[in-house]
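#struct-pred
JK: can someone run the complex with fe (iii) ion? inputs below
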Amino acid sequence: MPGRVLRDARLATMVPGGAPYGLIEDAALAIDADGRIAFAGLAADLPAAFADWAQEPLDGRLVTPGLIDCHTHIVHGGDRAREFELRLEGASYEEIARAGGGIVSTVSATRAASEEDLVAAALKHMDALIRDGVTTVEVKSGYGLTIADELKMLRAARRLAMLREVRVVTTYLAAHAVPADYKDRADAYIDEVVLPGLEAAKQEGLVDAVDGFCEGIAFSPAQMARVFDKAAELGLPIKLHAEQLSDLGGARLAAERGALSADHLEYLSQDGIAAMAEAGTVAVLLPGAFYTLRETQLPPVDGLRAAGVPIALATDCNPGSSPMSSLLLAMNMGATLFRLTPEEALAGTTREAARALGLSDDLGTLEAGKIADLAIWDVATPAELTYRIGFTPLHRRIFGHAVSHEKGGAA
Ligand code: DI6
Ligand code: FE
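RT: done, structure tokens with the ligand placed:
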């Protein structure tokens, strides 16, 4: 069965090593019947075999890989507008968390919500991301903190991929906060909830990766190491919220365990950078949380660059520290707040975000063989995607239907 060919296009392939953005002018992109890219290059080089496929002129529009939001908490109950007010009155994020607010307050609302309630609420954020050209979204659990409620969150996340043309990657984050009934008994919580819950999630096919919050108000590196041992036993990749509020050496731990990514990283040390560089662990920067918490400690972007650590950007969309549902805004903040170049910002939501999810073989660049998840934009230059604030120049998305259910990965 034939496919189709996008003609009169400009491609930001994001393939490194050539022109900035891997840009190809006067380009064509062929999509086969399985939804994979059959050709991406100069129109003049398009093989004759594609001539009888359906031809779609793009009138010179820019095509990029579909954007990938590689770190979100879009499945959650309730909101934290009251906490927002308290922080504006001077309370810190950590003070609120220690007083039983923060993450734990979202836990009550998430436990009270049905799976349907969670899906309906998450769809609003998902639809906002889709309007920004997003085609893959990572979704974490972590607001249930009982086995049943963590599984409920993961089932809700999986449902989103059935209701929209989007790939959903699920991450098990039961090690997000210590629930009230385990106060001062974090190790017991890990033994009785986190580890058996992970086994149950794996058994039900609900989990693609395992994450944790390594922080003074959450779990220590030694505790996270126990969670990572279980992930390894189950053959699941890992990632870690590390060095967000202080430097506990979480990034080194994650890197030494071969983590896909370490995320946040404002307090990352040179030692952590070296460990990440050696392991090829992606640095996922989350400027929405930096902005919302009015953080002043910048992540060490120059050090990451110098060491060759791949840098991704994500929304961290969550009700507390980053109530932001726009990946284009995360790109703008990554540039303005963290001084990423617009090219790094786009790589951070395409090529490097795919890598942070372990999906580089299928997603993240425009290359023959990859899935044809595309975003088509009404812009003159790729830098415009990062430049505007609160404006989406999306023309439309193309969702390549080729799926990899059999890998247990993006569905
Ligand atoms: N760090 C974050 O930024 C989110 N989780 C985490 O470990 C925020 C979670 C929240 O405040 O609800
Ligand atoms: Fe997060």
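RT: quick notes.
Residues 71, 73, 241, 316, 318 surround fe (iii) ion (ligand 2) (CB under 6 Å).
The chain has 15 helices and 15 strands.
JK: thanks, will look after standup
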